[in-house]
Prior knowledge:
With about 100 residues, the protein is mostly helical.
Amino acid sequence: xxxxxxxxxxxxxxxxxxxxxxxxxxxxxxxxxxxxxxxxxxxxxxxxxxxxxxxxxxxxxxxxxxxxxxxxxxxxxxxxxxxxxxxxxxxxxxxxxxxxx
DNA sequence: CGCTTGACACCGT
DNA sequence: AACGGTGCCAAGC
Length: 101
């Protein structure tokens, strides 16, 4: 039985490099409105590259948090490396927001 | 106009 | 039960 958390990871894997998805969009992609719980799910993610939790940002483009090494700073660095420009800890959703379709 | 900050409520584990 | 984390709102400069 897949837990809500595992289902979230499935959506993360669908995100292509150079794009980011918001927790809210993620919840809608899985037919759930518990976008608040998505944040908790990502935090519990014990997998590293298998689940690109660093590609998940808040609906307003803010990076949010990162439980990995280096904290949010590290997350921003990775996104920039992917081709996503980070402005003041925020991403241009209009340009990098990935839609699950 | 653009940008920032604080607080609250809600979700799943 | 508690915790963490997100989303929207408003106001101010």
